[in-house]
Amino acid sequence: MTLNPFIYNPQQALAAGQSGFITDSGSYVVTITDARFRVQPSGAKSIELSIETEEGRKAQYLHLYHEKKDGTANPYGLHLIHALMGCMGMRQLHPPTHPGGPVSEFIGKKVGLMLQKTLKTRADGKETYRLEIVLPFFAQTRQTLREKLDGQTARDVDNRLASLKDKDERTLLPLHTPSFNDAIPF
């Protein structure tokens, strides 16, 4: 087996120790690499996004819940979907032809997203996190949809970033209470 020589690549050298995934709250200019309509086991409906930053960092499983499990509208998720559509210049999304179908209108589009990291505790007690979309904005100008429509300069994203913090929804697992069966025999 013959190995080719390594030729120094400064971009690869600077990437050492960096994650290939978005792991922090912040604002990012991204391209939507995948978008799918999803129905959760509970019955809640969402659009699930996968994204990639200009630097190649990725995030998956970003859900925009537009319908609650009882079938009623979820206003927060609907507002985010419509804001995304506005920031990407879209007038309509077509429903999928099959469950889990793609939202093809979103795929390949560039948009700005403010993401918030939420710390969680998994059922097995291990810690994890998820990223949630807080605010879409125009990738080219950093203006929110409101700022663009009102002819204002971009300020909202930076103002919100100044106070954006990770949410902590971790739960403490109950401590084991010793019982008679745990007694050490003499």
From TrEMBL:
<protein>
    <submittedName>
        <fullName>Conserved hypothetical phage protein</fullName>
    </submittedName>
</protein>
